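anyone seen this seq b4? input:
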Amino acid sequence: MRFLAHRLLLFVAALFGVSVLVFVALRILPGDVAAVMAGTAATPDRITALRTQFGLDRPLITQYLDWVGGLLHGDLGTSALTGRAVVAQVGQRASLTFPLIILSLLIALLIGLPLGCASVLANGRRMRGFLHVLAIVGGAVPALWSGLLLILLFSRGTGLIGIFPSQGFPSEGWHNPGRALSSLVLPAVATGIVAGAGIMRYTRAAVGDVMDGGAIDMAMACGMTRTQAVLRVGLRLATPQLVSVAGLTFAQMITGVMVVESLFALPGLGALLIGDVGNRDLIAVQSELFLLAAFFLLLGLVIDLIHRALDPRLKAADATGTDAGDGTTGNAASKGGE
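predicted toks r here
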């Protein structure tokens, strides 16, 4: 409970810092926010009306407190461009972006975990070299390039094997789950290939740390084959580190899919944020940036709690006052980066 209370206090403090940073950053931009939203051809009366409509003529501290008060009640403000509530726009776009991220993460895990274990189990020098090069090349390929390649190979109309739609999302959304899911396959694969290469490297490093600790040798001494020991013992002991890596990969995909959404013309959160920035809808941008930052912080908190629940060494560290487990995770991270 003490650990949970400490993490929650840090989470709340970080949310406060993010809210201040986002609010101040948009207020110190050159020019008047209302003039920026109104555009270059706006009349002074139009600018004055916008300042009154969005409360920009009030003191900054009052504006900040009103905005934070709205956030606490689930009110993210109103878009100056569409006149719709920002929370409704974000919810509609998130129903596309988050399924895309989840599907991308599943593909990344299906690629990274088996190939990472194969890198550990490979006996031949050539096979180990091939898997090492595969991990480097997979991580170096931009999602934009892999997406273009997938369109040329598998898109309907232009691809060599026309299986999946190349762009767009069904107007009926998830009411037609088959069409909706098929439109996310190519962008999910494009994102998952890059993320899968990273998970592959971290899996190899994490399981390698377990092997260095002697757990695999002990399992083999009890009658397991090397493959059984790696898959049944090594992966289980490396699970806390892999959960952390999967969570960080999920967080990175939130920004990574924005490029893929643009390539495949998907109306997701990335397209919403880019469109609002381009159309100078700064009131909506303010809340959208805060939501993205808050989700990153929340995801970090959840990963921290899951990691602690899976790793008994971190629980035992409370009684001794040490920081058990950090060294193992750091070694895996450094080896995965190599």
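The longest helix spans residues 226-263. Confidence is low (pLDDT under 50) at residues 323-335. kinda curious what u guys think
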